[in-house]
Amino acid sequence: MSLQLVCLFFANSIITNLVFSCYFYVCNIGFTMILLDYYVRSLSYKVNRWANIIASIITITFVIGGGSLYLHYIFFASMEVICMLMIIWYSWKWK
Least buried of 19, 26, 43, 83, by fewest C-beta within 10 Å? Predict the structure, then answer.
């Protein structure tokens, strides 16, 4: 599909810049978690724990809510949800 057709499709749809911005921020939650945890080290353990739990819940909601019924998506989404549940578990058990 050419770029002109893609632009024409999105120009005539209800997808707006706000939707693209929200999608961008939700997709970068995991990256932000890594930056805050490993590189910045500016968050206390209590704040970091809750940031990880909230970010994981948002990511799980995004993965399940934006899903499809293709077998490959179900497989990778299941793996991602399992990893997010592990992050929640380890964050909750953090000292």
Answer: 19
